[in-house]
Amino acid sequence: MSVLPEVAPAEPILSVNNIEVIYDHVILVLKGVSFSVPRGGIVALLGANGAGKTTTLKAISNLLHAERGEVTKGSIVFEGQQVQDLSPNQLVKRGCIQVMEGRHCFGHLSVEDNLMTGAFTRKDGAAAIKADLELVYEYFPRLKIRRASQAGYTSGGEQQMTAIGRALMSRPKMILLDEPSMGLAPQLVEEIFEIVKRLNEEQGVSFLLAEQNTNTALRYAKYGFILESGRVVLDGDAASLRQNEDVKEFYLGVGGEGRRSFRDVKHYKRRKRWLA
Amino acid sequence: MELLNVLFIKPFADMFAAPDFLLQVLWEGLVSGVLYALIALGFVLIYKSSRIFNFAQGIMVVFAALTLVGLHEAGVPALLAVPLTLLVMFGLAVAIERVVLRPLVNQPDIILFMATIGITLFLVGFGELIFGGENKVMITEQLFIPTGSFELEPFGGFLLIEQKDLTAVIGAVVLVGLLLLFLNKSKMGRAIRALGDDHQAALSVGISLSTIWVLVWFIAGIIALATGIVWGARAGVSFALEVIAYKALPVLMLGGLESVLGAILGGLAIGILEKLFEIYWGQPLLGGNTETWFAFVFALIVLLFRPQGLFGERIIERV
Fold first, then answer.
1. Which residues of A lie inside 8 Å of B (Cβ-Cβ)?
2. pTM of full prediction above 0.95
């Protein structure tokens, strides 16, 4: 029995414990996924199409229900409290918000109205909301120029910025960012990720980042989890994942020397099976 | 040749020959048009925010009017009866959200549509149980709605305007104006429009479905009461009033189910066109009574050429 006060490891802001997700009562999508996000961290959730990244994010934000999905096992803990039975509205109030894949701006609303919808759950008065609007414009100067345009007519990059800005308007402690790089030019992807990094450092927002763009994601995240067919198959800090031979070959598209022969393909398959 | 004359020349000649009468026809059309627009707005708001086609809008008009008159009969002063009726409509909105909408969330649209038919049947029975089935008279005078009429003399002719109608038009315009202001400037209004654009995204930013649903059903209730008072003042309060809500259907086909502006313009267009058609084409050619079907036929013809309706919301699509 130790009498010395133990320095407890910092409690993660979000931990997902062995969750299983079933769509429509029959389709098993997540088969026991566990991971956690430290407070103030950026964690990447990586994997190919259909690996379960989006489902994981929606399970956390409770948007699954609207798609007839259900968390059937496991638990999700945000800031020390179980949240899987909360509505998205309650979760946003507690400070966890999702930016959905494909941006999902309100097309007929102006950019500024889009941003203002993010403040729906707030009760701290118009002045505070206005101040945050200016803050968002500071991070995304381009949105200020386009504030009066209908969001549906803005470019893909601007829509992604609108979507992130809209989430910021709720004063989140954590943002679940789904595929921010989708369909954007490499330069813009870089720009968006830079802003994510700044938000993380300056505003202390934690990020859970679902990405297919493994390369970029691992440069900005501190830690990564790789999903495959609904399971976490590999995890580690970003640097070590980038060095991992399998990750290099399967997700970064480098690795392997010289020309491939048929033998290498077999080798690939064999290792792939190990990964799964 | 005779037919061409009757179809294309004589009506217009008549219009020019008696411009004061034309104005009278246009005025009458405008009065019903404003009301159609109001009811259509009720449909549009509910459809936009929940993808539910609210079959119960008509019976809500009857129910609101009956409640108002019923309360007055029970001895409540008229001016107190109005806020009380609004309270009842709010209670109805909350009840519908709790009992009907919330358990059925995520069900296919057709199931929710069926549920609104259920609401309709319930309100018919419930209304009859409480207020009885006989016709009642709207408490027009007690509500200080002027009932006289005055005459104007445009073009040296004669134009009769009922003060009741004028009040209805002004009231409806004010209500529509307030509604537009609410939709465009307030936080809740913004949330309603957001919900209409992208359901999932609205959920993701924390917009609470139940709050918005109660709100739009309550707004539909307010609209129902306004329509009930105006129409009740013209035709008496009975379950037959329900039918005027179905006049909003062609308006919706024309205006598009999702467009607020479409509902307003569509309502005015239908109101005016059906009156013009009745007077200048219907009565001489078909022996009258065309108002019952004109709007539907007109909407059908428009739909042949513009399936999204005249003002259906433009689909913004970026690739």
1. 61, 63, 65-66, 68, 87-89, 91-93, 97-100, 104-109, 113-114, 116-121, 150, 152-153, 156, 159, 163, 166-167, 170
2. no
Question: Quick check: B206 and A109 CB within 8 A?
Answer: no
Report residue A75: phi and psi, to 5°: -145, 155
Nearest CA in chain A to B196: A106
Query: Alpha-carbon distance B132 to B148, whole Å?
Result: 30
Buried b (16+ CB within 10 A) or exposed e, B286-309: eeeebbeebbbebbeebeeeeeeb
Chain segment A20-67, per-residue pLDDT in tens: 999 988 999 999 999 999 999 999 999 888 889 999 999 999 998 888
Which of A104, A222, A121 is CA-nearest to residue A164?
A104
Cα-based torsion angle of the residue sequence A149, A152, A157, A161 in order, rounded to the nearest 10 degrees: 70
Between the two ends of chain A, the Cα-to-Cα distance in Å is 42
Task: Classify the C-alpha dihedral B50-B186-B172-B22 as positive or negative.
Answer: negative
Answer yes or no: do B316 and A152 touch at CB < 8 A.
Answer: yes
3-state secondary structure of B270: helix
Question: Which chain B residue has the Cα nearest residue A57?
Answer: B204
Q: What's the CA gap between A157 and A141, in Å, rounded?
A: 13
pLDDT value for A66: 81
Domains of chain A: 14-103+172-255+264-275 (3.40.50.300)
pLDDT (0 to 100) of residue A4: 47
B200 vs A: CB within 8 A: yes
Residue A274, pLDDT > 70, answer no
Place of tokens 């330069």: A187
Q: Which positions of chain B have pLDDT values less than 50?
A: 319
Instruction: Identify which of B71, B82, B238, B86 has the alpha carbon closest to the alpha carbon of residue B145.
Output: B82
Domains defined for chain B, CATH in brackets: 2-305 (1.10.3470)
Q: Which residue carries 């959730």 as its tokens?
A: A45
Alpha helices in B97-162 (DSSP H): 109-131
Which residue has 């004359």 as its token pair?
Answer: B5
Consecutive H or E run containing B271 = helix B260-276
| Per-position b or e across B113-137, b if 16+ CB within 10 A of its CB | eebbeebbeebbeebeeebeeeebe
Average pLDDT value for residue range A111-124: 94
| Per-residue burial over A144-172, b = 16 or more CB atoms within 10 Å of its CB, e = otherwise | eebbeebbbebebbbbbbbbbbbbbbbbb
Q: Does A170 sit within 8 Å of B199, measured CB to CB? A: no
Is the complex ipTM more than 0.95?
no
Pair of tokens at residue A22: 């079933």
Per the DSSP assignment, residues forming a β-bridge with A236 are A224
Query: Are residues B158 and B20 in contact, defined by beta-carbon separation less than 8 angstroms?
Result: yes
